[in-house]
Amino acid sequence: MGLSDIVGRVHAAEETAGRAAGSVKLVAVSKVQPLERVEAVLEEGHRLFGENKVQEASGKWPAFRERFPGVRLHLIGPLQTNKARQAMELFDCIETVDRPKLARTLARLRDETGGCPELFVQVNTGEEPQKAGVLPAETDELVALCRELELPLIGLMCIPPVEEEPALHFALLKKIAERNGLGELSMGMSADFETAIAQGATYVRVGSAIFGERVYG
């Protein structure tokens, strides 16, 4: 595995699904990865990365950004409102808006600072109590609030339950997005990104298949 292998598989999946080449963007998930692995992927020319934690990203990415122009960074982990200001300064996109309080906080900070990253609403398609994300039945309401607040909402994101068929969750996310006129879908990870592309993903989030297994501790 590695970057070129995954890029090749993304292109093949686009072709199989009858989609235009380049219609799916690959987010290389660099959370908990050693700096040298991340640097190697940057050296290969990749510029779109995902991080789970504001704190980890703030220690890693400012230096890389100085050396590698054109980096775009997505926050793909839960965001606490007290970290929202820092997240807005650091990330080009926040994929995990999942509650009204966070949407209102982002709108207030946008008014203070004059800018806001692109946003996705995270949907808890499996309705798992331990997982972040708005429930499917409450998604339309949160999308409407984001629009009322004039936030730059571009799409929906989900992380299906590990033990369930991901295609069902991807289809549900697409249906909710279409109903709300949202064009971007962030769905699919190392094990199921080809299935996600077949279901209409525009962003897939792949970590260990690019960088190797994560080293915790």
Account of the protein in words:
- With 217 residues, the protein is of the alpha/beta class.
- Helices cover 44% and strands 16% of the residues.
- Helix 4 (84-90) links the parallel strand 3 and strand 4 (93-97).
- 37% of the residues are buried.
- The mean pLDDT is 97.
Low-confidence stretches: none
- The number of distinct helices, counting runs of at least 4 residues, comes to 9
Largest sheet: 8 strands, parallel
From the 3D structure, determine the CATH topology: TIM Barrel
Strands of the widest sheet, in order across it, are 7-6-5-4-3-2-1-8
Content of β-strand: 15-25%
Give the termini distance in whole angstroms. 23 Å
Please identify which CATH superfamily we are dealing with: Alanine racemase
Could you tell me the radius of gyration in angstroms?
Answer: 17 Å
The structural class is: alpha/beta
Mean pLDDT: 97
CATH architectural grouping? Alpha-Beta Barrel
Helix content: 40-55%
Morphology call: globular
> How many structural domains?
1
Quaternary structure of the protein:
single chain
